[in-house]
């Protein structure tokens, strides 16, 4: 009897892990739409590690936010032990000399905030409470960017999986329906997102 109970518990854990692995953050390979980009190609060679060259790219304001997101997506998701988000935060702290998170939230650009949020969320998709804070702040600073809005929605949708699966769909669909946004993301990338998100409809 104890052996059967143990097997059931193991099966439940495996099933829950598979369920989360099949989720808004882990099932939307946006970077596939940007394979022709040199920076995404570079990210594909680092085995998931955020190098100084990639951090410099994410920090540079002249680069498009969609490509920054594609770079982070290319690095992948899961607990790889690289602590990319931590090291990127340390990198930014050294660059901008902010004293705490509140100061960073107020001073950082929308691009930097969404980049850090996405890095954090991709590294630990089981707990996206902190990434949501950064993502919402990014959206408040640039509420016209489709890329920022959809990444924010994906992170929120990941959280909604804990409680409301209909909201998982609505969060991203609301972005899709918002025609006032600056469509700063490739249509192929949008298609990749909704090929998965439409499963929740």
Can you describe this structure?
By secondary structure, this protein is mostly helical. The N and C termini lie far apart (40 Å). Helix content is 65%, strand content 0%. It has helices at residues 2-21, 38-43, 52-59, 65-75, 84-96, 101-107, 110-123, 129-141, 146-160, 165-177, 187-197. The longest helix is centred in the first third of the chain and has 20 residues, at 2-21.
Strand content: under 5%
Q: Let me know the average pLDDT.
A: 90
Overall geometric form: globular
Main sheet record = none
Radius of gyration, CA atoms, in whole angstroms? 17 Å
Helix run count: 11
Helix content: 55-70%
Structural class computed from helices and strand pairing = mainly alpha
End-to-end separation in angstroms reads: 40 Å
Spans where pLDDT lies below 50 across 5 or more residues: 2-20
Secondary structure: number of strands: 0
Order of helices and strands: HHHHHHHHHHH
Q: Helices and strands in order, then pairings?
A:
Layout: H1 2-21, H2 38-43, H3 52-59, H4 65-75, H5 84-96, H6 101-107, H7 110-123, H8 129-141, H9 146-160, H10 165-177, H11 187-197
Helix pairs in contact: 4-7, 5-7, 7-8, 7-9, 8-9, 9-10
What are the key terms here?
201 residues; mainly alpha; disordered N terminus
Give a brief outline of the structure.
This protein is 65% helix and 0% strand.
